[in-house]
């Protein structure tokens, strides 16, 4: 999995006064958990842009001014209720031999013949929670819809992988194609060469929000 570097400064004081001063200076107070003891540090708010405001999943490398480096994953983030400014970020330290739980985005691949024949593509799970060693975390989970016809569903049980464990029931639907008023008979095998691209997200208003 790709990582983003966050350069920070270790915090000497963690009281309300110092925290307010940091925020006024455009910095975000952070805590790194998971090691021998919590590490309190701060970083520029702009440093979190590519880590927070993205549908992709990344790990982080925390680089402190004293030379310390920590591999980590974003665990929790707090936003101001009015301005949406980042108020606080919690990280969890990664170790090569300890599994970690993360939500990984799903990427659809291929052209669905069911969509070509007028069916509606419903993207039920845009992210899936998995548990894996840090070195085996994927950037995304690929789901092939090139054989997905009207009335069919692709569930978690069809994409099981030895590198990680899904934290969902095997029967959890990821993507499916439903019949629509304009759909045609989709039961016959047909040449799928040149099939139209999958339906964009806006064509599937019934799809659940990303988890």
Automatic annotation (TrEMBL):
<keyword id="KW-0689">Ribosomal protein</keyword>
<comment type="subunit">
    <text>Part of the 50S ribosomal subunit; part of the 5S rRNA/L5/L18/L25 subcomplex. Contacts the 5S rRNA. Binds to the 5S rRNA independently of L5 and L18.</text>
</comment>
<feature type="compositionally biased region" description="Low complexity">
    <location>
        <begin position="202"/>
        <end position="211"/>
    </location>
</feature>
<dbReference type="InterPro" id="IPR020930">
    <property type="entry name" value="Ribosomal_uL5_bac-type"/>
</dbReference>
<dbReference type="InterPro" id="IPR001021">
    <property type="entry name" value="Ribosomal_bL25_long"/>
</dbReference>
<dbReference type="Pfam" id="PF14693">
    <property type="entry name" value="Ribosomal_TL5_C"/>
</dbReference>
<comment type="similarity">
    <text>Belongs to the bacterial ribosomal protein bL25 family. CTC subfamily.</text>
</comment>
<dbReference type="Pfam" id="PF01386">
    <property type="entry name" value="Ribosomal_L25p"/>
</dbReference>
<dbReference type="GO" id="GO:0003735">
    <property type="term" value="F:structural constituent of ribosome"/>
</dbReference>
<dbReference type="InterPro" id="IPR029751">
    <property type="entry name" value="Ribosomal_L25_dom"/>
</dbReference>
<dbReference type="InterPro" id="IPR037121">
    <property type="entry name" value="Ribosomal_bL25_C"/>
</dbReference>
<keyword id="KW-0687">Ribonucleoprotein</keyword>
<feature type="domain" description="Large ribosomal subunit protein bL25 L25">
    <location>
        <begin position="6"/>
        <end position="91"/>
    </location>
</feature>
<protein>
    <recommendedName>
        <fullName>Large ribosomal subunit protein bL25</fullName>
    </recommendedName>
</protein>
<keyword id="KW-0699">rRNA-binding</keyword>
<feature type="compositionally biased region" description="Acidic residues">
    <location>
        <begin position="185"/>
        <end position="201"/>
    </location>
</feature>
<dbReference type="GO" id="GO:0006412">
    <property type="term" value="P:translation"/>
</dbReference>
<feature type="domain" description="Large ribosomal subunit protein bL25 beta">
    <location>
        <begin position="100"/>
        <end position="181"/>
    </location>
</feature>
<dbReference type="GO" id="GO:0022625">
    <property type="term" value="C:cytosolic large ribosomal subunit"/>
</dbReference>
<comment type="function">
    <text>This is one of the proteins that binds to the 5S RNA in the ribosome where it forms part of the central protuberance.</text>
</comment>
<dbReference type="GO" id="GO:0008097">
    <property type="term" value="F:5S rRNA binding"/>
</dbReference>
<keyword id="KW-0694">RNA-binding</keyword>
<feature type="region of interest" description="Disordered">
    <location>
        <begin position="177"/>
        <end position="211"/>
    </location>
</feature>
<dbReference type="InterPro" id="IPR020057">
    <property type="entry name" value="Ribosomal_bL25_b-dom"/>
</dbReference>
<dbReference type="InterPro" id="IPR020056">
    <property type="entry name" value="Rbsml_bL25/Gln-tRNA_synth_N"/>
</dbReference>
<dbReference type="InterPro" id="IPR011035">
    <property type="entry name" value="Ribosomal_bL25/Gln-tRNA_synth"/>
</dbReference>
């Amino acid at each position: 999995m790709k990582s983003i570097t966050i350069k920070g400064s270790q915090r000497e004081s963690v009281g309300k006064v110092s925290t307010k001063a940091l925020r006024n200076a455009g910095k975000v107070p952070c805590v790194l958990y998971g090691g021998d003891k919590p590490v309190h540090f701060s970083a520029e708010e702009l440093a979190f842009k590519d880590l927070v405001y993205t549908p992709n999943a990344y790990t982080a490398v925390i680089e402190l001014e004293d030379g310390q480096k920590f591999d980590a994953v974003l665990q929790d983030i707090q936003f101001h209720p009015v301005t949406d400014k980042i108020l606080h970020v919690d990280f969890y330290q990664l170790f090569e031999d300890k599994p970690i739980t993360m939500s990984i985005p799903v990427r659809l691949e291929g052209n669905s013949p069911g969509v070509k024949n007028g069916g509606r593509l419903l993207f039920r799970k845009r992210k899936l929670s998995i548990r894996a060693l840090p070195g085996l975390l994927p950037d995304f989970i690929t789901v092939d819809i090139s054989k997905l016809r009207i009335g069919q569903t692709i569930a978690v049980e069809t994409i099981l992988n030895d590198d990680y464990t899904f934290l969902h029931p095997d029967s959890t639907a990821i993507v499916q194609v439903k019949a629509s008023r304009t759909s045609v008979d989709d039961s016959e095998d047909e040449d799928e060469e040149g099939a139209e691209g999958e339906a964009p997200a806006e064509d599937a208003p019934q799809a659940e929000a990303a988890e």
